[in-house]
Predict the 3D structure of the following.
Amino acid sequence: MRHYELTYLASPKLDEEKVIQINETINIFVQGKGGILGLTERPKNIQLAYPIKKFSTAWLVTNDFYIDESLLPEFKKLLDENKDVIRYLIILKEGHKYGAPQKVTLERTTEPTKESEKEPTKDDSKPTGKEKAPLEDLDKKLEEIL
């Protein structure tokens, strides 16, 4: 199973209850095929940036779900056959086929061998970028330069 997000635009001629029915039809399909439903947002009536099929407004709905990728063509066919869905987009949410990558932390098991890899100690004469030099030393350096 893979994680998908479906976002679709429904006809503005519909009332909110009819858009919710379309959404329930989609949810029944996903659950009937052994999928798992995720987050579903309530339909929002939005103004479109440009007309789509001569509509300037539409209902916007977004669903998250998990379904087997072999069922995706059948799912797209269901959306294509519904005349009230004017446009849709299905996005794969995972990073790769077998799930999201896991966070891995690496820990050093041995002490560094090179001199440059060792942690700086306080008795080193070179100041590092993290340490602040005393103000008197800075004043002396400025007087020497000027």
User: Anything to note?
Assistant: The helical segments are 16-32, 72-81, 135-145.
